[in-house]
Amino acid sequence: MREFWFYFKNGIIGENPILRLMIGLCSVLAVSVRVNNCIAMGAGVLFVLVCSSLVISLLRNFVPREVRIPIFIVVISTFTTIVDLVMQAYLPSLSKAMGVFIPLIVVNCIIMGRAEAFASRKPPLLAFADALGMGVGYTLVITAIGIVREFFGYGAILSVPLLPSSYQGMMFMILPPGAFLLIGIYIALLNHFTGRVKR
Amino acid sequence: MKGIARIGLALGVVCLVAAVSLAAVNYLTKGKIEERKAIELQENLKVVFPNATEFKERPVPEEASRMEGASILACYDALVEGKPAGYVFRVSTMGYGGEMILLVGIAREGALTGIQVLEHQETPGLGSNITEGAFRDQFVGKSIDDPFEAKKDVQAVTGATISTNAVLRACRGAVAYFKEVESQP
C-alpha cells in the first residue's frame, strides 16, 4: 500500500508528465485555451491511461518483446476509440470542442511512455497507481494552465465572463506560446517549492 | 519458426479482442450518435432559418454543385406553413486547417437568414471564433447582392483572415447556387 501511494504521488509531483518529464506537450498547447476543454482532455487521458496501463500490465508476461509496441498501440487505440465514440454519443458538444485531439490521445507520448517504462514491467496494482498519478498530474497542470489562459485570453473561466466586456482579450494567451510561457513558470515554481534548485 | 508463431499468435489475439470490443461499443453507440446527428441537423437548420416550420431535402445535381470555390453538399427547402419561403444550403469549403462545412440560409426575398458552422478544423481560439455569434450575426439579413468581402461588408475575425475568407467563399457559393435554383421554374 505504501508503494501504491508512492507511485501515485510520483505522477503528480515527482515525475509530473508535463512539468518534470515534459512529454505530451502538444495536446497541452493546443487544448488548454479553455478550462472545460482541459477538464475533458484530462478525463480522456486519465481514462485511456488507467485502462491501457492495467491491460498492458496484465498482459506483460504474455506479450513477446519483439511486438510489444504494436500491441501497446492496439490496446491504447482501442480505449481511445471507445472514449471518442462514447463522447460523440453522450457529450456531443464537448466532442466537437475537442475535435481531433481525442483521437490523438493514441499517440500521446505520456500513455505510450508509461506503458513502455512502467506498466509493462510492474504488477497491475502499481501500474494502476502510476497511471492514476500521471493522469491526475496531467489534468491538474493542464487545468491550471487553462484557468490562466482563459482568464487573460477571454476574460472568463469555464465560459463565465468575469471581466467587463470592454476587456480586450490577450492574444498571446490564446495562442500556443502562452501555454509555453505558463509551463515554464510552473516548472520554475515547482522546482522552487520542492527545493530542486540549490541557492 | 516457433518464435514467429508465438509473436503472430500474441498479436492476433490482442487484435481480435480489440476488434470485438470496438465492434460492441460501436454497436451500442451507433444509434445514439446517428440520432443525435439528426436532431442536431434539425436544430441547426432552425438556427439558420428561424421562421421555417419544416425542412425538405432536395437533390443537388452533380454538375451544379461546385460554386465559387465552394461545393454545395445538400439543399433543403425551408417551408413556412407548407409554403416555400427559402432554402438552406449545406456548403463545403477549404478553411485554414482543412475542410469546413457550413449551413447558409437564404430567404426567397433575397436576404440571408443566417449561417452556422457545422464542422471545421480551424485553429482553436483564433479561426474557431467563426462559430461565435458576434461574427455570424453579421450575416443575418445581408442582401444576396452584397459583395461578401472581408473588410468591405464583413468584419473579419481577428487573426483569422483565411478562416473568414473561407466562410465568405461558402456564402458566395450558396448565393450563386441560390440564384441558379431561383431562376429555374
Question: What can be said about the biggest beta sheet of chain B?
Answer: 6 strands, antiparallel
Distance between the termini of chain A: 35 Å
> What is the number of independent domains of chain A?
1
Q: Could you give the distance between the termini of chain B?
A: 73 Å
Give the helix tally of chain B. 3
The low-pLDDT segments of chain A are: none
State the helicity of chain B in percent bands: 40-55%
* Strand proportion of chain B: 25-35%
Main sheet of chain A: which strands, in order across? Answer: 1-2
Largest sheet of chain A: 2 strands, antiparallel
Domain tally of chain B = 1
Number of helical stretches of at least 4 residues of chain A: 9
Concise account of the structure shown:
Chain A has 199 residues and is an all-alpha fold.
Describe this structure in words.
The complex is a heterodimer of chains A (199) and B (185). Chain A has 199 residues and is an all-alpha fold. In chain A, 69% of the residues lie in helices and 2% in strands. Chain A has one domain (2-198). Chain A contains nine helices and two strands. In chain A, strands 1-2 form a two-stranded antiparallel ribbon. In chain A, helix 1 runs parallel beside helix 7 (124-154), helix 3 (35-58) packs antiparallel against helix 7 (124-154) and helix 4 crosses helix 5 (92-98). The longest helix of chain A is centred in the C-terminal third of the chain and has 31 residues, at 124-154. Chain A is globular, with a radius of gyration of 18 Å. Chain A starts with a helix and ends in a 6-residue tail after the last helix. The model of chain A has no long low-confidence stretch (mean pLDDT 88). In chain B, a hairpin with a 4-residue loop joins strand 4 and strand 5. Chain B has helices spanning 2-48, 133-136, 161-183; strands spanning 54-58, 66-67, 70-80, 83-94, 99-107, 111-119. Chain B has one domain (49-183). The radius of gyration of chain B is 21 Å and the shape is elongated. In chain B, strands 1, 2, 3, 4, 5 and 6 form a six-stranded antiparallel beta sheet that branches. The termini of chain B are far apart. Chain B is α+β, with helices and mostly antiparallel strands and 185 residues long.
